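Please annotate the following for my students:
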Amino acid sequence: MKLIDTNVLSYVYNKTNNYELSIDNEYISSVVASEFLLMQKKDYYIPNIGNIAKNPYLSKFTKVEHLPNKHSTDSILFDFNQLHDSFCHYSNFAISDLINNQNIILYDKIMEFQDKTDRKELKKKIRFIIDNNIKCEPILDEDIKEGYLILEKFIDKYSTKGNFRNTWNDILILSKSINKGLLLITEDKLLNKIAMEFYNAIVTKNNDFVNLTFNTIEEPIRKINKESKGYINKSWEYKIRNQF
């Protein structure tokens, strides 16, 4: 089983350089789904349908009669103290649930509130995911904690990308791959370097991309945890809201 990063998914979708890669029945994280489906850029949310019984406020979104707002979905608030401004990853569980249940009807209803050009492209993208039977993994507590460990080691040696959030998204994709024991297919050179330096990842060439293979989480070879002794910057926090 493989975890696909955003660039690889986009290359296959766009058939960039006529590149062909079988992604049928493989995995993406909710971070990749959010990036690929332009959820932050186009500023839309997937309503947390699974939580309706627990939260009556959400019941109005079952028919999606108007554009769902951020209160209709789940979220993770990441707080990096003085390192960077805090921000949210919205619809972490909701987009995973939609993809895994292949709920195209719900997605299409949300798309009714996008402009015509965006609607057409995004509906095509969600069908690409569904048609390839791709599964979506939400970001969990263990992924965030592992991510903070990676980030702490990362900033000791490297500079973050111009957009800090892109760096953090890459780290979350890496931590998900490690915790799930999934081979990660990526083209990100810095991500490759981190995986090799901190986790003794095995790197193999895969045409224009590379495969990153990790030892299972039970095997105590991970340099990052040995060196840090499990320490996480105490000023970095996170809060999960409206979890399924």
